[in-house]
Amino acid sequence: MSSLSRQQQPQYDHLEQAAAAVPNSASSHAPADDVFVFSPGGLRVNGLSTDGLLSQENSELRDRVGDLEQRVQSQADELVCLRSALSDCLRRLASVETSKAPANASLTLSPSGAVATNSLAVHSAASPKSAGGAGAGAKHSASGSAKPGRKPQSAPMVRKPTRSDQPSQSSALSSPSGGGRKSSSGAHSTGVGPASPRPGAGGRGSSVRGSTEQSQQQTASHGSSVKESVWSKEDGVIRMHLRGRPLNLYAPSDLVEQLRDVQQVEPAEPPAEKLKLEWAYGYRGRDCRSNLYSLPTGEMVYFIASVVVLHNVEEGMQRHYTGHNDDVKCIAVHPDKITIATGQVAGHDKAQGKPHVRVWNSVDLTTMHVLGLGDFERAVCCLAFSRADGGNFLCAVDESNEHMISVWDWRKPHKLAETKTSGDPVLACEYHPLDNGSIVTCGKNQLTFWTIEGGQLSKKNGIFEKHEKPKFVLCLTFAQNGDLITGDSNGNILVWARGGNRISQAVTGAHEGGIFSLCVLKDDNLVSGGKDRRLVQWDATYNRTGSEAAIPSSTDQSGLCHRGPAGSFNLDFSPIVEGHVEELWGLACHPSQLQFATCAYDKWIYLWDALTHQVVWSKELNDPAHCACFHPSGETLAVGCQTGRWYVLDAQRRDIVAVHTDGNEQIECMEFSPDGSMLALGSRDNYLYVYSCSEAGRKYSRVGKCCGHSSFVTHLDWSVDGTSLRSNSGDHELLFWTAANCRQVPAAATLRDVAWATQRCTLTFHTAGIWPEGADGTDVNACDRNSGHSLLASGDDFGQVCLFRHPCYQAKSRSHAYGGHSSHVANVRFLRDDSRLLSAGGRDSAVI
Questions:
Q1: Which of 187, 383, 499, 512 has its CA at 20 to 30 Å from residue 611's CA atom?
Q2: How remote is the C-alpha of 705 from its chain's centroid?
Q3: Interior angle at CA 151, CA 147 and CA 153, nearest 5
Q4: What is the set of domains in the chain, with CATH numbers?
Q5: Per-residue three-class SS string for 201-242
Q6: What is the pLDDT of residues 301-355, one digit of tens each?
Q7: WD repeat positions in this chain (predicted)?
Q8: 3-state class of 322 per DSSP?
Q9: Could you give the 3-state DSSP secondary structure of residue 506?
Q10: How do 678-683 and 667-672 pair as beta strands?
């Protein structure tokens, strides 16, 4: 040491300290005669360099720290599961206590004889249909396009005043299931369908919802398309105008006598029966990413229309968050697995219909915060909670032209930062699970790494280098070590090292076509799902494990992968949620069983069991389907299509037993006569086609066609004796026909006492009161009467299902109104036992 220069002395002082530490750390391994040698080349122990020993120690330390991190994460997951389970138990206990507590709560017998009681949920106002449409044919939908089945008219649209109401504070509940939506201050539902006022209703504060319904009443209209209906007691007729067309609706003779001395008919009160949201059929996976999550409680969380569904598969139950008033487009789950954020598109309501984010509690379904009213354009398409800090912040991306990204302190709530991302669509965003303030977004022609510091968002674009840049980066996730994993439209899986924006590993040709979903399992294996409908498992080094599975072709695979509570990869798959993926109009109830059929423009027909909520069978046709009806025997099902072709299927074996074509335009409606001997079809070519049928609806022979409508046929009904028909058209006509010869009955008053087997026509004496002031004649799309002739349900263009007393001939009649659909309600039907009401949601593809 004395021969070393003074400049070298500090270095070797440091080495002496290191040498002193080495025997302590390795004393159990070194022999008693270990020799330590100091030299300018460094400290050596028994010929080994101290650099190697320290490197070994560091490696072991990293391994131990990594193991501890995994244990801590595992314990954190267990704590989250325990917390969620405890919250779920408390919710169930509260539900049981609530069901026992109110002595004055009304009880309802379900079809199985079980007694159901009511529970309470927050209620708020509905939203008005946007003003200034392009014509009578302009209908609201998720994409804003016109509703099929309505011909445009040149008369300008005016904003339509609608029904106001006073909250009814009764705690009543009945068994039919309705929709749920409309919230202006945090509305929610705990399995009870919310009643909400018709668009334009006065009060917008929150009130009791679900069992505390709001009754509807029409208000006066200025410049409306519907003049106030007038009751003429001398003639026993209601005179009303729809878009300038006069309508005379003749009352039955017995009712004329009852009203002979009445000067003015008072509005009808709403019925005592009410609806609760029981089940939402369908799942929006066709145009959204990150749309399916699992909770530790065993519930799946997804959305359809404006309803967020919490679906417990094992128990066969659903709960529903109904705070949104239009299409839900994205969802994010907080790290605590209890708090959930959902974003919606622009809706009807001027105040609450703007795109916004709702943060809510998945245990009691209460709204915690509403973010971004007035900040977003068009829709909120992506959401993500921060993860490294325990979920203090929320990132949101909207669908404006510049696809703005914003970061929120959601508890205050307060926007911390905002900037534009790209002119191209953004498909997904995620916070980094380990690095605070790090966000990744992906989409068309983009993969962007964001960092938020000092209230500013800065970005770095992903660099693909030698790899072909994909047109779309479709999905992303993170490995347990913090590496980013992406799937793209080229079918490649790319790995991006933590902290960088360059590719560290590539798996090319992982799938044939785009990769829609990626999921990292608890064992660090990866599961990918692609356009080729395959699920493939990869190990931690991104090699195939050999485990693969194929998804059935009838399943929408746009966003299927999410790690469940078990976190494992099971090759046994069976469909849990099925539904339509295109516009849905066709809805028919089985005449003798608690089943119903739906058909849509996706060419699929589904037969559903209303008690188990499962698909009995499904079948794909060659044509987009629009309407359907069962033969009275229940043995066959007729389906009308957009091409003018109509099919008849065996209702049990789903085989096609007959195919016919009438014209080359859409079959709008179809109904069998009560005895099943005849079938009538209303076409978009303005004609009604009448057929005689035999062999339980398997053989057909045309009787003729009814000519007289000046526009397309929208609805039709048979008389109870099967001799007469009545029909509505697109220009608001009500015409009557003799079925045997297809001749029009010019004197409608002669049929005033005819008993009608169904109530599908929306323009009749018994339905005059369902039309709100200001309606343009196309706002009410469908109606149906229950078998007891005491209730009348309607579906309208405001996304609402309304429940009236029957008959409903009084102007300004009051009703219970329910949301849940985000598009026009295209159809409504009561089940044969009146226990449930079904509604089909047009472009939202939902059945509620």
A1: 187
A2: 40
A3: 110
A4: 230-276+580-844 (2.130.10.10)
A5: CCCCCCEEEECCCEECECCCCCCCCEEEEEEECCCCEEEEEE
A6: 999 999 999 999 999 999 999 999 999 999 999 999 999 999 999 877 676 778 9
A7: 577-618, 706-737
A8: coil
A9: strand
A10: antiparallel
